[in-house]
Amino acid sequence: MTFAGHSELNEVLASCRPRPLEQPNVLKTLLAIQQTFGYVPIIALPQVAHTLVVTEADVAGVLSYYPDLRTEQPGRHVIRVCMGESCFANHGRQVLRAIEEAVGRLNGKVTELPRFTVERVYCMGNCALSPTVAVDQDLHGRVSPDDIRSLLERYR
Ligand code: FES
């Protein structure tokens, strides 16, 4: 394995190894890996399957089913733009377009870890304050396209 986080991965997997008579929890394990690395490296799947005593197809199935799990290393900050019904009806698409344009300008060269990664999500439980945007763990409601520049400036 050429994955640089090999020893950290071993630690995560050791904490997720099922005890005797316990069912393996693939989702919990993948979330723990993402929590540690920011994503789930595809190269780790055989080791996850081996640790949990499941097939690689089982792991890949869970990984592809849950949109919150990502397989690419994200930028320093993850922007989640809600495209759920309420946010979409309240100009969410214009907010998304403004964010994508701003991020296109703000991200560094292709060879650098980008400053931002943009993801679409479908309802963050903040519908009353739609449209909603989350940057990392911070939830922002009633976001307008005009707010995007100052919002993103807070995240270096
Ligand atoms: S639809 Fe966007 S927060 Fe619910």
Description:
The structure is a single chain. The chain is 43% helix and 12% strand. By secondary structure, the chain is an alpha+beta fold. It has two domains: 6-65, no CATH class; 77-153, Glutaredoxin. It has a four-stranded mixed beta sheet with strand order 2-1-3-4, covered by helices on one side. It is elongated and about 55 Å long. The relative contact order is 0.13. Bound molecules: FE2/S2 (inorganic) cluster (FES). FE2/S2 (inorganic) cluster binds next to helix 5. Residues 82, 84-87, 123-124, 126-127, 130, 132 line the site of FE2/S2 (inorganic) cluster.
Quick gist of this model?
The chain has 156 residues and is of the alpha+beta class.
List the helices and strands and how they pair.
Layout: H1 6-16, H2 26-37, H3 45-52, H4 56-65, E1 77-82, H5 85-89, H6 92-106, E2 116-121, E3 133-135, E4 138-140, H7 148-153
Parallel strand pairs: 1-2
Antiparallel strand pairs: 1-3, 3-4
Helix pairs in contact: 1-2, 3-4
Residues 82, 84-87, 123-124, 126-127, 130, 132 line the site of FE2/S2 (inorganic) cluster.
Number of helices: 7
Domain count: 2
The CATH topology name of the largest domain reads: Glutaredoxin
Integer-rounded radius of gyration: 18 Å
In spatial order, strands of the major sheet run: 2-1-3-4
Please give the number of β-strands: 4
CATH architecture of the largest domain: 3-Layer(aba) Sandwich
Going by helix content, strand content and strand pairing, the class is alpha+beta
Largest sheet at a glance? 4 strands, mixed
Distance between the termini: 33 Å
CATH superfamily of the largest domain: Glutaredoxin
Strand content: 5-15%
The low-confidence parts are: none
Write down the CATH class of the largest domain: Alpha Beta
Listing every helix as H and every strand as E from the N terminus to the C terminus, the arrangement reads HHHHEHHEEEH
- Basic shape: elongated
* Helical content class: 40-55%
